[in-house]
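Hi there, hope your week has been kind to you so far. Do you reckon you could talk me through the fold, stretch by stretch? Thanks so much in advance, here it is.
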Amino acid sequence: MIDTVTGVETHIGSWTLPAGTKGLKGSWQGFVEWWPFNDRKKPPTCNLLKRTTVLFGPPRTSAAGAGAGSLGNPFEVFECKGKINYKAKRVGGNVEISVGF
């Protein structure tokens, strides 16, 4: 993650598989969500989402012969679908997703 105001870069995650891992499939679906309304008795506050932009790159590995990863087309789901100013676009081999106000 790079703070575009300060320029500070922070690594926020990676997946590491144990040595000898086999049988991985060529596709996977992940998700990112903003969930400030875990109390299901209250309505979602979709309009409070601050503007956020993220650039996802394709999965990569140093494992010999593993091949290149790819990214599918992102989409919205759940309570805030259509209510958070969602935008997604391709930037080279990456996907940029922006949400919020």
